[in-house]
Amino acid sequence: MRPDPTHPLPPAAFALASLLPLPLIGLGALQGGAWLWAAFLYMAVLTILLDQLIPMTASPVEATMEKAEFPAADLLLVSVALGQLAALPVAVWAIAGDSGLATGERVLLFFAAGFWFGQVAHPAAHELIHRPKRELFRLGAAVYVSLLFGQHASAHRLVHHRHVASPLDPNTARAGEGFYRFAQRAWRGSFAEGLRAETARRAQVQGSGLHPYTVYLAGSLAALLLALAIAGLPGVLVWVGLAMHAQSQILLSDYVQHYGLTRTRHPDGRLEPVGLRHSWNTAHWFSSAMMLNAPRHSDHHANPSRPFPALRLPDEEEAPRLPWPLPLACAMALMPSLWRRAIRPYLARWRPAPASPQDTAP
User: Fold this and answer.
1) Phi, psi torsion values for 299, nearest 5 degrees
2) For residue 122, how many C-alpha atoms fall within 13 Å in the half-sphere facing its CB?
3) Residues 84, 146: contact at Cβ < 8 Å?
4) Spatial distance between the Cα atoms of 81 and 275, rounded to a whole number of angstroms
5) Which residues contact 122 (CB under 8 A, 6 or more apart)?
6) Which residues are within 8 A (CB) of 124 and not within 5 positions of it... i.e. 6 or more apart?
7) pTM
8) How many Å separate Cα 297 from the centre of its chain?
9) Is 2 exposed, middle or buried (0-12, 13-18, 19+ CB in 10 A)?
């Protein structure tokens, strides 16, 4: 019998699935060869194959589990974040510096590391910026700063969670909107709206220290100076390239996980509260383990402080669910026409009328 997918996965599954690529990437950077192929195939192929070929094996848990503190969960988040902060300069050296890797090996390392930064380090940083402890928040923000995307630490919490599934959220994709147009709008909009929200918040708090955006920009500049010290101008270009690779995956996740979903506006002008029906979810076990339950997105928005191992997968009658693993859905979104055709019948259930003529385009 297939286990109930609403139950959390075993803690060991998260650690194994998310951390295993990191030593493969490290060994690949130092030795090349089979290690790089293993890292690349793990991130690009194995995840999707395991999701499709092996049924979920999560064990039933006590109902009180959702109230647990999950100390091991924070330890895993810290491990992933520190691993990313160490792996990024190593990858830059191996790709742009005098590592002895062949050209093809450098390309493999670029994609393997970039996939891990965007699909594992990002979910870990995302969890950390939701933690109440200042040290954990700062570590999560440091991951985003290293990826030249520090504003995400502000915009995600102060803008996205408040305005999701409404025109006020730059990171909610409209029905019929292609990813590339969305990405430009979301990057600019989240930077501007996050800055506005942080500035407004600081105006209400005395003695709040440096503006967070000053820290984000200074940290990004320091990262690029480190890249310059590691491998000169090629190092800077590779660091920027890896950051853009990771950023594109962050934006793809936002695009897919809220595509076309909208909150109803009441007659008095107020939006309905954020609910389970305002995020797309996936039920695929291995990508959920590797991405620290990021595909259980509805429950995260409904309960932002809930630890990731306790996030629940809503019933298909309660919340939208994609039939594809999240990494595969993100790859499909890179082809706008294919994505619109594929998502249309699933979106129709949650949004009966298309938002624009584009949504009915072949």
Assistant:
1) -65, -35
2) 29
3) yes
4) 29
5) 143, 147, 246, 249, 250, 253
6) 18, 76, 77, 80, 81, 84, 140, 143, 292
7) 0.91
8) 11
9) exposed
